Amino acid sequence: MTGDKTPGARAHLNVLSDLCTPWCIHVVATLRIANLIAIGNTDIKTLAEKAECNSDFLHRVLRHLVGKGVFAEPTPGQFALNEVALELLDPSQQLGLDLNGIGGRLAFAWGSLLSTVRTGAPAYHEIFGLPFWEDLEAHPDIAASFDALMGLPGHGTPDPEVLVTGGWELIQTVVDVGGGTGALLAEILRARSEIQGTLIDFPGTVARASSILQAAGVSERVRTIGQSFFDPLPAGADLYILKSILNDWPDREAALILSRCAEAARPNGRIAILGGVLPNDSVSSLSPEMILLGGKDRTLSEFRELAHQAGLSVQASGLLPSGRFAVECRPM
Ligand SMILES: C[S@@+](CC[C@H](N)C(=O)[O-])C[C@H]1O[C@@H](n2cnc3c(N)ncnc32)[C@H](O)[C@@H]1O
After folding, report:
1. 128 CB less than 6 Å from ligand 1?
2. Residue 271's beta-bridge partner residues?
3. CA distance 115 to 82
4. Which of 6, 8, 182, 233 could join 264 in a cystine, given CB atoms 3.0 to 4.6 angstroms apart?
5. Are 277 and 271 in contact (CB under 8 A)?
6. 108 φ, ψ to 5°?
7. Over the stretch 5-54, which tens digit does the pLDDT of each residue have?
């Protein structure tokens, strides 16, 4: 209500618009302060020395976080890990927060929100000089940290159960389109020794897949192809997987990716879409993909329309054992 002067309403807005705390968390994660404390560096001067930063400023940052419930300061100038600070030791948290890697791209990209809201298009290039994927291509270290965040170190081991309808006995060949560093394909092949796989992604990304495929003992059964999924895909496989792909793209590009899958899967292949399609009663929400790429989630009805344009018909949809909503399509 306009003019509401209650302290509760003011405090709420102040808390919600506080940028100080998120940046303090990013800074201590980037400086690995929790790791330094975990190995016995508890004094502020030692912490500042080891982290190569200004002791007074670091002290103020840590005190701010103590006030927010992250870290403890049992005696002045001495810091300890509490339950929340312990989470900063988790490598997946570090990947998402480290300002020197993809965590910095994800954090600074929110600065483009105003332009994005005004135009309805991503404005990532206004911050970083290039659109998102081109920026990653120009910065291989950032690309590697993005792949790690998407892959095993960030998201853990994926569930290999990707079919809503079952019927694995009919599947001998699987293509994971935009499959990153191969974590999902590795799990599918590990679970089913008769299947051969193809991993498609940018050349730099598939080059990073070998250790994951080897560790899973499946590299002999995987072909890796560094190509764009906007170009024709290898034809004739039984199953094409799009996991967390379509929600990265506006409609025109998403329809083109689906068309590429439809062409390659004709006449008898299937396409499994995991992520990016939601049940019809879902409410659309703001996502990092919108800011980075202009992508979005779609309801099943919206997706059905897009799939139809691409020459695909929806055969089934539902929740997988992982809890993820998935859709299966066939070429029309
Ligand atoms: C959100 S990630 C999902 C990765 C993987 N499917 C997963 O679920 O972990 C999107 C993937 O699409 C890949 N990608 C983006 N544009 C591409 C293109 N034009 N051709 C091939 N791969 C692309 C990225 O490199 C990245 O691995």
Report:
1. no
2. 240, 329
3. 39
4. 233
5. no
6. -65, -30
7. 554 556 689 889 999 999 999 999 999 999 999 999 999 999 999 999 99
CA 6 to ligand 1 center in whole angstroms: 47
CB 236 within 8 A of CB 264: yes
The first and second tokens of residue 253, run together, are: 């590009």
**For tokens 């997988």, what's the residue?**
320
> What pLDDT digit, counting tens, does each position of 81-109 carry?
999 999 999 999 999 999 999 999 999 99
CA distance 13 to 286: 19
- List, in sequence order, every residue forming a beta bridge with 226; answer none if it has no partner: 201
Q: From 188, 245, 258, 273, give the residue whose CB has the most ligand 1 atoms within 8 Å, as the site to mutate.
A: 245
Please give the Cα distance from 100 to 141 (Å, whole number).
Answer: 9
The residue type found at 123 is A
* C-alpha span between 205 and 202 (Å, rounded): 5
pTM reported for the whole predicted model: 0.93
Distance set, CA 80 to CA 49, 52, 92, 125, 320 (Å): 17, 19, 21, 40, 41
CA angle, residues 279, 183, 142, in degrees to nearest 5: 95
Q: At what angle do helices 102-109 and 20-30 cross, to 10 degrees?
A: 170
